[in-house]
Specification:
- The complex is a heterodimer of chains A (204) and B (646).
- Chain A contains two helices and nine strands, in the order H-E-E-E-E-E-E-E-E-E-H.
- Chain A has 204 residues and is mostly beta strands.
- An eight-stranded antiparallel beta barrel of chain A has the order 1-3-4-5-6-7-8-9.
- Chain A has one domain: Porin (Beta Barrel), CATH 2.40.160.20.
- In chain B, strand 28 and strand 29 form a beta hairpin.
- The chains are: A mainly beta (204), B mainly beta (646).
- Chains A and B meet through strand 6, strand 7 and helix 2 of A and loops of B.
Amino acid sequence: MTSRKKQRRLTAGVLLLFLPVFSPASTGVPSGKIPFHTVHVGSHGLIDTNRNRFHRYWQSRGGIDVFAESPFYAGRIQLGFQYMPFSAVSDRQPSFNSLFVYADWKKEWRLSRTLACFLGGRAGFCRMRFDRSASGFSVHLMQEQEFAAGLCSGLHYAWSEKWRLSVTGVTWKIFTHERIHLAFLSMGLSRRFNTPPWLRKFLE
Amino acid sequence: MKIPTISLLTGLALLPAASVRPGTQVITREMIQRSGIIRVSEIGTLLWAWHAVTLDGFRWAVYPLESPAPGGQNWILMVDHQRMDLDVLDRRCLYLLPLSLGIIDSVVVSTTPQIRDGLFVESGIIHIHTAPPRSGVTFRHRYAAGNETGDPGPWAFTPHATPNVDRVANDHFSSLSVGSERIWGRIGFGFNQFAATDQVLAGRLPDYPWEWLRAYVFSPFLHLGGKAFGGEHRLQIGYSRAGDSPWNSKQGSDLLFYGPLSREIPVRNVFRHAGLDGRLPVSSSLSLAYRCKQSAQSLESAAGFRDADPGRTVRNSHGTLELRAVRREWEGRVGFGRDRFDLRIKQGVTRTVSLARLYGDIAAAGPGRIRPGAAVHLTSDGDRVSVKALMHAAWRPGGRQRLETGWMYAERLPAEDDASRFREDRDGKIADPMPVRPDLDGDPGKYRHTGLFLEWMYDAPKTVIGVRGFVRRHRHMPADHDGAFRGTAALTAAPAAGTEDGTVAGGRIRLSYSPSRRLSFRFSYIRTLPFGGGPGFESAMNRSPRHKLSLAWDYRPAPSFGLHADFTCLSGTEWFPCGPADGYPGRLGNMVLLNLSVRKWMWGNRLRTGLMCFNVLNDPVRTHPLGARLDLSIFLNLELVFDFPR
């Protein structure tokens, strides 16, 4: 088995780990049915789990995901950004900081009173800012922005009405000419708020 | 939504309002919003019985599939009953329209022969209707941005580097309107940016500086309207300029494809328009309509460009006066109009074409449920007269069915084409005022176009079905107009100075189905079949797809949220019969295009957001062998609307 296949299997495994096993009867949509009725605000730590040709040139030590999530027409919508710096493996390439600004929509299923799983799709833009201190690179290419799309799945553990712990697997496909495939694993906390009436009115 | 009254000449004025009309597609404001397009020129991509061609993804050329491209370029572009003369070098620059999608109420597109605002529609018409301002004050600002995928990203610093293909689409539009019962006004501007970076274009423009590849289009406008003397009157003033940025010292140009050089030339392209139209009641059954306008289109060389001098201005003066009678059993109108086109080039050479028009039509309630009608339209260039005529009949056997048929005969004088399309001659001198079509020995040089159509329609509240058959015969059709871009020497190898005969037959099926208020579905298929034509005619027809299938699906789970999909299949086209030419493919294969869009309105519909994924399947779309390969692209639009009703 080639290393690329291994990496793909690893990526698929990370996702499958979080794929919900559910019956139609379990789809109780516990997340609230009224759009924007509540909002979860949270932050996750991120690690880059897969390895492919991209990682021969750049590697990451981790990143952060900050988001807000709310019920949205038969599912949940999440808006957020993921920041992850990538360090160049050699000095022939510049290091760069990536910022994914994204929106996702996901379906959530309750597995027990405190546990729920979810699966969804996300899309956004990946903004890449290259290290200016690196010499010999075109000034025009110090910044780049490209469309990215992917899947997300994971588990929520809500130990109280307001707080929950989440573990999420995310795959990203960045639509550069040579596509970049990334798989992130993230874990973190989020807190639930009742959406202020003025904000709910604005969003509706 | 306002659906404008369709011309009396189609016989429909005597029929009850219907959501479907023969050969007509109505694109409403809601449909535009759902589609996710961001510019007026992209409306061409929503036309189901028309073909849209682009070299760069920004400048779209369209023509009806019922007509081969040369004849198809006789279609008419109108905004609020005023003709827009946007033709430059044989193409219609829709991107110069001083408008924004935000103020468009509907677009009525028809290939049915008719007389429209004093002009005979033989191939087709695109009539854009702007939304009349509401009573009170309304401000709207629209911002749109786009991004084509396929940039190198970090790979640019590795052995896997590829060129940058980013296409910037940074568009702004603002308008302020003030209205009352008797008078209203709207002022605003549009500002579009575009950069030609596709490798196909960049490959033939390797020495062009970045400034020439970037276009800034600035389009301010003023619309005034009011009621006076018992009637309604409208004034439109618009200006549009493609070239340098109006805000800073950044230089730019409009890239126009120029056949003799087989590549684009950077120009500054300026369009001006001022028009007044209205209607005055004479008696309870008689009214007088008037239209007059002045427009000018100027081309100048971009700074530093020396290869060809396009410096020239075409001015047009147009006026029409029309008397209309409406009685219980019949309707009719007579009118006359005058057009004057002046071409002026830098060296002082001028050429003038004057055309006089006289027309009349009548439609009556015939025996049974039949509504017949007829029309005649005469055009004179001072020496010769061309005749255009049509007859039509609508039969409503009862229920929701309707059967309509029409016949058309149209002659076009060479001067009618010269007038709207002063262009380069065959030696490549852009401003040499050559006639488009030289007269043939023993032939008056009239292009004759005969058409026949039959359409059956079923119109129910949730379902609309239309089946149409048509035949169009062309005689002495100018062979050297391919309607969009003539292209390289290989393209112009077709008989350039002659005329062609040929026939196009075909059919179209369309279906709209809305099972609920949340869900709607539309389908259209058009098939064209040319025959009886010479090599030049066949060559022209081969550049148009013979099959076009379109599907649209719209789902609105909530009033402020919706999802939309547009799916289009086009058959392949052949451009160079002898194979690739100058490195360009001789044939373009079948094309499949899927666009997905999502929209969400917030803040009581004051903030309207939309996101469109163009070409989701990411199979590169190419509509012309010399054109860009359009990959998956993302377009975002945001619109702020503040309404202060009186």
